[in-house]
Amino acid sequence: MKIFSPATVANVSCGFDVLGFCLESIGDEMVIRKTDEKGIRITKIEGFDLPFEAEKNVAGVSALALMEAAKPNCGFEIEIYKNIKPGSGVGSSSASAVGSVFGINELLGRPFDKTQLTNFAMKGEALASQCEHADNIAPAIFGGFTLVKSVTPLEVLQLPTPANLFAVIIHPQIEIKTSEARSILPKQIDLQKAITQWSNVGSLVHALHTSDYGLLSRSLSDVVVEPYRKQLIPHFDDLRESALKNGALGCGISGSGPSVFSLCHGRETAKNVARAIKTLFSKTDIPFEMYLSRINTEGIKVIG
Amino acid sequence: MKIFSPATVANVSCGFDVLGFCLESIGDEMVIRKTDEKGIRITKIEGFDLPFEAEKNVAGVSALALMEAAKPNCGFEIEIYKNIKPGSGVGSSSASAVGSVFGINELLGRPFDKTQLTNFAMKGEALASQCEHADNIAPAIFGGFTLVKSVTPLEVLQLPTPANLFAVIIHPQIEIKTSEARSILPKQIDLQKAITQWSNVGSLVHALHTSDYGLLSRSLSDVVVEPYRKQLIPHFDDLRESALKNGALGCGISGSGPSVFSLCHGRETAKNVARAIKTLFSKTDIPFEMYLSRINTEGIKVIG
Q: Across the interface, do B188 and A188 touch by the CB < 8 Å criterion?
């Protein structure tokens, strides 16, 4: 069985640690086969250099978590074709973690629901980021926009996605460690800034429900985390200014970076934004990759 | 023209400074008459002892703000029949501020929209609470649940209200000054608590849109403000426990207190909650008043 496991954007400006959305045009592929022999074997990895031992591989660890709960009378072989570069900030480890559990669940006849799959995948994610979080996993599994209401117990809300929403992603090829991006955040924040942030989270959710692109734009603001993390991303302010000037609804750091997302109303606007960002970043000496994608409301899926 | 100007609940647990909802069964009444003589005259105040000079009266100040913008060729007389006790925490000053501007706007043929009326009323509110805020004014004017996305510029979002939602209010007859309730709050809060709070605000908005009473219940939590302010309200923890044990979806401080609200699914549950709270509070030596009200989706209105 062949799986498409999508890239995702976590945080989404105001929604630090809780919001995320799913991309359509970039993701990993995985092939999963049932075997008579029990256990998980990773038999092929293409694209990037990752460990083959199941216990040391994100996709392996999440698969093992599922196996422990399912105790099936069989095993699984996994082939991983990675397109999402590890450390890019668009949910590379989540895509791996999600792909194996989704595929195995399909082959077993779907004994687990999406929330349970999210829980298994979080075990894999924890291997990569040293903490269990679901803000990339949830949108990959549920599709569209998600809000992770709580992790213990896990509760994921599937939010509506306005029909005509596109994302432009730029991935500057620099390294930001998630742990570093976490450590530069203050442990305490101004109450006033927190109020601004939760006002924006509330209005962003309302904007998604009402397909109000203007309100969505006015809600895509991060007064808490971005002021610290943007220092880790060269030319972030110029990039953001250019995206907004060219019609983006909002622009922010994807996950803990270095990727930066812009949300746009309509494909034409997204193309304009992509063009402007490309022109701007081409003048720097930092190599980069770009993606333009509709918001993927389906999430992870079987493709063969 | 006779106006019913409703009481309101601000903050709504997780939504400190931004959320509010409107009540149906308690509110002030005001009678407003066009006069040839220019200016605002308050000719009658019943219920509580409040100043008659327009410049010192909340309803007068908000009316004067409207008059300055409208510059009408007439004046207005205002009679105020107050039912909402000042300082009760259910938007007494907001009801006054809103009543006069709503009534005058009606008599002038509605030159101003609801957001403009909110702006005028905030001038009156500022007289009472020393700061311009709209979290009681907005639900009184718009009805139902509101989210004040920003004050400058003013942007109010009207959120949907699930059909079968009731509030139980208990007003312990003690005095809490808004300024005191503000001053005990810390200027800085834990980032982790802020994340919990904005997760709850997001899920509360989603719960209102989907009429998901269970999610509404799980979202009605305040980890930021309530831990400080509840000390000002005797027996708060017992009261909350009793409300939840008797089926309330949530229970929290109304505005800056001392009133406490419980939100309930259905009138029968609300009655049970009211009964339990009444029994509990009757054992204390603090006098109190109680109200049971459907959520008022209409807001302020002409009643004669």
A: yes
Residues 6+ apart with CB under 8 A from A241: none
Q: Torsions phi, psi of B65, nearest 5?
A: -65, -40
- Give the containing element (helix H, strand E) for B79: strand B75-81
Q: What is the mean pLDDT of residues B65-92?
A: 96
Nearest to B260 by CA among B11, B6, B4, B5: B11
**Chain B contact residues (CB < 8 Å to A):** 14-19, 147-150, 155, 157, 159, 185-191, 194-195, 197-206, 209, 215, 218-219, 224
Which residue matches tokens 């709580």? A150
Q: A222 to chain B: which residues are within 8 Å by CB?
A: none
pLDDT at B130: 75
CB contact under 8 A, B191 and A190: no
Q: Which site among A146, A195, A198 would you substitute to test the B interface, given the most B Cβ atoms closer than 10 Å to its Cβ?
A: A198
Of A174-178, B15-19, B184-188, give the lowest mean pLDDT range. Answer: A174-178
Q: What is the DSSP string of chain A?
A: -EEEEEEEEESTGGGTTTEEEEEEEEEEEEEEEEESS-EEEEEEEESS----SGGGSHHHHHHHHHHHHH--SSEEEEEEE--SPTTSSS-HHHHHHHHHHHHHHHHTT--S-HHHHHHHHHHHHHHHHSS---TTHHHHHH-SEEEEEETTTTEEEEE---TTEEEEEEEES----HHHHHHTS-SEEEHHHHHHHHHHHHHHHHHHHHT-HHHHHHH---SSSHHHHGGGSTTHHHHHHHHHHTT-SEEEE-TTSS-EEEEEESHHHHHHHHHHHHHHHHTSS--EEEEEEEB-SS-SEE--
Which residue intervals of chain B are DSSP H helices? 58-70, 92-107, 114-129, 137-142, 178-183, 191-210, 213-219, 226-229, 236-245, 267-282
Per-residue pLDDT of chain A (304 residues; tens, 9 = 90+): 999 999 999 999 999 999 999 999 999 999 999 999 999 999 999 999 999 999 999 999 999 999 999 999 999 999 999 999 999 999 999 999 999 999 999 999 999 999 999 999 999 999 887 777 899 999 999 999 999 999 999 999 999 999 999 999 999 999 887 778 889 999 999 999 999 999 999 999 999 999 999 999 999 999 999 999 999 999 999 999 999 999 999 999 999 999 999 999 999 999 999 999 999 999 999 999 999 999 999 999 999 9
* Closest CB from A188, A200, A209 relative to B209: A209
Q: Which domains does chain B have, with CATH numbers?
A: 2-158+298-302 (3.30.230.10), 165-294 (3.30.70.890)
